[in-house]
Specification:
153 residues, Serine Threonine Protein Phosphatase 5, Tetratricopeptide repeat, mainly alpha
């Protein structure tokens, strides 16, 4: 199936989901997956559509299929955490909740963007003073070693 047709099917399924037609959304996402079995977004969306219909076991199964395609995707683990919690398995829900946090941290390892205020409207910065170091450091009597030998006195 050509890519444009798959995209149209996917868009129609997303529309069905957003209007609350979860059965129609499931059918649409399954058609997309029939044309492209590795379509990650369709698989993830299909799992959510089954969840919204109350079919938690199928949602979990599809969520794990999505996990095999993208094991470090934060949304996969967030969804699995939600699915397991509604299914009544708190331990697995917490496990996937933690994996979602870790995936979020991994995905946020880029250098921070410059602050929005930089540019012509940036806040004034204090001018640094030129510091002149002394030629000789002052005596520090507390660092001197005590005299060695017999004490005079």
């Amino acid at each position: 199936m050509p890519g444009d047709d798959l995209q149209a099917l996917f868009d129609d399924a997303v529309y069905a989901y957003t209007t609350g037609d979860f059965a129609g959304a499931c059918a649409g996402f399954e058609r997309v997956l029939a044309g492209e079995p590795g379509h990650f977004e369709a698989l993830l969306s299909l799992s959510l559509a089954h969840y919204r219909q109350g079919d938690f076991a199928r949602a979990i199964q599809l969520g794990h299929q999505a996990e095999t395609l993208s094991p470090d995707e934060q949304r996969v683990h967030t969804n699995l955490s939600l699915f397991y919690m509604r299914h009544g398995d708190k331990a697995r829900a917490e496990h996937h909740g933690l994996r979602a946090r870790v995936a979020g941290w991994k995905g946020n390892m880029d250098k921070p963007a410059p602050a929005a205020g930089e540019g012509p409207l940036a806040m004034a910065q204090p001018k640094l003073e030129n510091l002149k170091l002394p030629a000789k450091m002052p005596d520090m009597p507390w660092k001197k070693s005590p005299p060695v030998g017999p004490a005079s006195g």
